[in-house]
Design brief:
CATH topology of the largest domain: Rossmann fold
Strand order of the largest sheet: 2-1-9-7-8
Helix content: 40-55%
Number of domains: 2
CATH class of the largest domain: Alpha Beta
Largest sheet: 5 strands, parallel
Distance between the termini: 21 Å
Number of helices: 11
Radius of gyration: 23 Å
Number of strands: 14
Length: 291
């Protein structure tokens, strides 16, 4: 597993991230402007050594090209609470959202250790993880260079997380839904078993011994609430349960938590939601509970 640092060389944040990445042996990529310059002058050969010059002129072209190849974007700013006061940062965030690239804002008060853990978790599902680092385009912001350096240096110290495999029981009376969710979970590297009713789920759990359960509520025999209560009363090891249901009333979430569910999710789901639930299970469950 690895993380690739992407940047354009245009800001102090990026130059700090580049220095740290080269110091710790991380791969560096990205696009720089056609002119290989920023507003202070010609970029140094050290900064442009791993960058490709854009065929189109202008700093925005390099920014767009680099963002297009990123899996995640980290933006270092003087104040995360006031980031949108900078029109360039606001435009970059809009572009990231439009491209479906998740992005985080950091400033000097951010817990970079927590950011490193989140990035390492993303690395489990995307290898290599291509992380774009940037900041405001006023390159004399000294703290920006330090913050870019600190981000990458801290990330290099964050342990690589070993992907955790879970045994997931999926209970849903709609066969296609249950089987498709199991196929997705298997593609993510987990064991998964479908069941079409609550009683079938109880029988499956005895032989499958899941550590994660995704349960529908409106089952043909016993409800998902009752199924969760039975699982909780008989569990021999930690168990993460998510109610995945079409019931979207506020009372449904309250009933789910009371029955023993850890999460309440309203249908329809998608791959990103299922991946997030699995990541939450990995955080909640102790290491020894999975096999």
């Amino acid at each position: 597993m690895s993380i690739v640092v992407l940047h354009t060389g245009q800001t102090g944040v990026e130059r700090g991230a580049d220095r740290a990445a080269r110091a710790v042996g991380m791969q560096v990529e990205g696009f720089c402007s056609y002119e290989r310059r920023d507003e202070l002058g010609v970029l140094s050969p050290e900064i442009t050594a791993n960058l490709v010059a854009c065929e189109q002129r202008g700093a925005r072209s390099a920014l767009r090209a680099t963002l297009a190849s990123a899996h995640v974007l980290v933006i270092a700013v003087p104040s995360a609470a006031q980031a949108n006061a900078n029109t360039g940062i606001e435009a970059l965030r809009r572009a990231a959202r439009a491209s479906g690239v998740p992005h985080w804002l950091i400033d000097s008060t951010t817990d970079l250790d927590a950011v490193g853990v989140r990035l390492r978790r993303l690395e489990q599902t995307t290898d290599p993880l291509r992380m774009m680092v940037t900041g405001p385009r006023y390159t004399r912001w000294r703290e920006g260079e330090r913050l870019g350096w600190r981000l990458v240096a801290q990330l290099s110290l964050t342990p690589v997380l070993v992907p955790r495999k879970h045994r997931v029981l999926v209970v849903d009376d709609h066969q296609d839904t249950a089987e498709n969710m199991c196929m997705l979970l298997q593609a993510l590297g987990h064991e998964a078993l479908p069941a079409m009713s609550g009683l079938e789920g109880l029988e499956a759990a005895e032989r499958f011994d899941p550590d994660v359960g995704f349960l529908d509520i409106g089952l043909p025999d016993i409800s998902g609430y009752e199924l969760a209560r039975r699982f909780r009363s008989s569990q021999s090891h930690p168990l993460f349960l998510a109610a995945i249901t079409g019931m979207d009333q506020p009372s449904a979430a309250t009933l789910a938590i009371s029955a023993g569910f850890d999460r309440h999710v309203v249908k329809p789901t998608n791959a990103e939601i299922i991946r997030e639930l699995i990541e939450q299970a990995s955080v909640v469950l102790p290491q020894q509970s999975v096999g």
